[in-house]
Amino acid sequence: MRDRAAFAAVADEAESALGHVDLLFNNAGIVPFSTAAELSYDKWDLALAVNLTGVVNGIQTFLPRMIERGAGHVVNTASGAGLVPDPNVLYVTAKFAVVGLSESLRLAVARHGVDVSVLCPGPVATRTS
């Protein structure tokens, strides 16, 4: 999600093998936690790079192709934390940004035949091994 060149290479491979990408699902994230007293630039950089910039990279890689074709749908996964604040400042900040990005982008690309949705699921238990 953070490597723009790799993202573009995968996009080219996918379209070469399968044809145009009409549905883009930006669905990767991490849930870092840091108390306010323990926040650092490194923690901010990681949280925003995966949870926000990863979405931007997906959009920037595929959206121009969708606009050129006049069709497509982008689905960005944010979180319920993108709607209701809680003490996890790193995660909430990024997910609020994904919600705002998605809602604004939907308005900006509608005239190009592209739609945008944002998902805001609640907590999901995942295996951590």
From TrEMBL:
It comes from the Bacteria. It holds the Pfam family adh_short. Gene3D superfamilies: NAD(P)-binding Rossmann-like Domain (3.40.50.720). The keyword Oxidoreductase applies. Signal peptide: none annotated. InterPro entries: NAD(P)-bd_dom_sf, Sc_DH/Rdtase_CS, SDR_fam. Keywords: Oxidoreductase. Belongs to the short-chain dehydrogenases/reductases (SDR) family. This is Short subunit dehydrogenase. It comes from Lentzea atacamensis.
